[in-house]
Write a structure and sequence with these properties.
By secondary structure, the chain is mainly beta. The protein has two domains: 42-135, Immunoglobulin-like (Sandwich), CATH 2.60.40.10; 149-301, Sandwich (Immunoglobulin-like). It contains three helices and 23 strands. The strands form six sheets. Strands 14-17-11-10-19-22-21 form a seven-stranded mixed sheet, with no helix packed on it. β21 and β22 (282-290) form a beta hairpin. The longest helix is centred in the first third of the chain and has 28 residues, at 10-37. The protein is elongated.
Length: 302
């Protein structure tokens, strides 16, 4: 130490190093004290969602991301922020998501009048990766709707005290690369339903109740249809099992499942596949077909 201090500038270097060590220790101490005495609610805010918005396959450079909180069936907006030039956004969450309490966070972005949602964040582990919200440009449908592909349709028919209860599941697929939207007074998609149905219920699945309706024998949707899949659920009752199901030409797959006990039937246009037991005492006869040409398949007695 003496030799180093005797060198030119040695004392200065020693003082600088000593001060630097002291300052470093002070900074560390201050940071520790800040963390120790920070209010719990402030510490909780360090749970962070880091995300990126994409317009198609390109990072979105203009827009606003909104943070939502869903818990015990109640949904509210917590915060909003402008997107960065690289499409990035960041939110500090008030606490960690809790799957046991159904404490969920997610983000949304509005583009061309359509609101897009990112995935639900149900646990802290899901925040480890970059959160993604995808939005798309829009394609305006004709007034009568757009011929969206029907990827699959599953029709469950069950006997009840007043006839037959039917659950009709339509899985649509938008292959356009753009979100299909309705023009003023128009629709995005529609499908003819069997004659004579009653007690029709629509609005389940992945659309809100006010975006789909049953009118004049058709299920009619005004909901925006982004690229990818979308599920529509229609429930209704009918007096007779022997009915004709309207089928859109090009339907990629149709399954009709009739719960037993039921009369022995065949379905023109479909093949009998097997009996399926979904749970003990619940057996269905399954008929199926692929790449149907329409316009109907008919259930007939054998």
């Amino acid at each position: 130490m003496v030799a180093s201090l005797s060198e030119p500038g040695g004392i200065v270097r020693w003082v600088i190093k000593d001060v630097a060590r002291a300052c470093s220790s002070i900074r560390s101490l201050v940071m520790l004290l800040v963390v120790l005495f920070m209010p719990p609610q402030v510490l909780a805010q360090q749970v962070t969602m880091r995300g990126t918005a994409f317009l198609g396959d390109t990072m979105m450079s203009d827009g606003t991301a909104v943070l939502h909180h869903l818990t015990q069936g109640t949904q509210g907006e917590l915060d909003s922020t402008r997107l960065g030039k690289d499409g990035g956004f960041r939110f500090n969450l008030p606490r960690e998501p809790d799957p046991i309490l159904s404490d969920i966070f997610f983000a949304s972005i509005r583009h061309d009048g359509v609101l897009y949602f990112g995935p639900m964040i149900r646990s802290a582990e899901e925040l480890d990766s970059v959160y993604r919200v995808s939005v798309y440009d829009t394609l305006v449908a004709r007034p009568e709707g757009f011929p969206v592909a029907i990827q699959s349709r599953s029709v469950f028919i069950e006997p009840d005290s007043s006839g037959w209860r039917v659950t009709d599941l339509f899985e649509l697929r938008n292959d356009e690369g753009q979100t299909i939207v309705a023009r003023p007074g128009g629709d995005t998609w529609r499908h003819r339903m069997p004659v004579g149905i009653r007690s029709v219920q629509v609005g389940e699945g992945e659309v809100s109740a006010d975006a789909v309706r049953y009118l004049n024998g058709e299920v009619i949707a005004r909901a925006a249809l982004p690229p990818g899949g979308r599920l529509f659920v229609v429930r209704y009752q009918i007096d007779s099992l022997f009915m004709s199901l309207p089928v859109r030409a090009g339907t990629e797959r149709l399954d009709v499942l009739i719960r037993e006990p039921a009369p022995t039937v065949a379905i023109d246009g479909l093949d009998f596949i097997e009996r399926q037991e979904f749970e003990p005492g619940s057996t269905y006869r399954r008929f199926a077909g692929a790449d149907l040409s329409g316009p109907v398949v008919t259930i007939v007695k054998t």
